[in-house]
Amino acid sequence: MLTGMRAFPVGLAMTLSVRSRVRTRRFDLNDGLFGEPPRHDDDGQWARDRLKWGFEFADGRRATNVGARVPWSGGSDLPSHPVLSGGGGGGGPQAADRDYWLWPLPPPGPLRVVCQWPAYGIDQTSHELDGEMLAAAASRAVPIWPGT
Fold first, then answer.
1. Distance between CA 118 and CA 97 in Å, rounded?
2. Exposed/middle/buried for 93, CB within 10 Å: 0-12, 13-18, 19+?
3. Which ranges of the chain would DSSP assign to H, the alpha helix?
4. Mind listing the pLDDT tens digit for each residue in 32-85?
5. What number of H helices and E strands is found in the chain?
6. Which residues partner with 122 through β-bridges?
7. Nearest CA to 82 among 60, 100, 104?
């Protein structure tokens, strides 16, 4: 579940939180969120023990945690497509949290969040967020250090 989201003029910062009713092996939840590099099964499919999730913008563009990582540090060489990148976090056998950054700020319109985690019996599911609300929140962002 998304337990926090902050809108900025250039993108969205969020926290993804995973909870399990039953106690898993020590690193099951963490590996599903933090395991690097992204793993695929022998047939090239995304490993079923890994959480697969992402966003579909109102204009059809997508950003997911599947596929090659985009080596981008926020400089002037902008990626050609939206990017969902993972940050810090942690957890244990029944809870794990990880921070993510979504670039760019999605355009107005519905923003669809999609996830799938076969290892935990979660078939592909989606939920729509209000892109207008996110754009409005981003427009109210105030720089900490103006002019930098």
1. 19
2. middle
3. 28-34, 131-139
4. 666 654 555 555 556 667 888 999 999 999 999 886 566 555 566 777 889 998
5. 2, 8
6. 117
7. 104
**Cα–Cα dist 138/8, whole Å:** 4
CB 2 within 8 A of CB 16: yes
The mean pLDDT of 135-145, rounded to a whole number, is: 94
AA identity, residue 92: G
Q: pLDDT tens, 81-95?
A: 899 988 888 877 788
Q: Which two tokens stand for residue 50?
A: 């890994």
Q: Which residue has the tokens 């579909």?
A: 56
Contact 106, 58 (CB under 8 A): yes
Tokens of 114: 């999609």
5 Cβ neighbours under 8 A, 6+ residues apart: 12, 13, 14, 15, 134
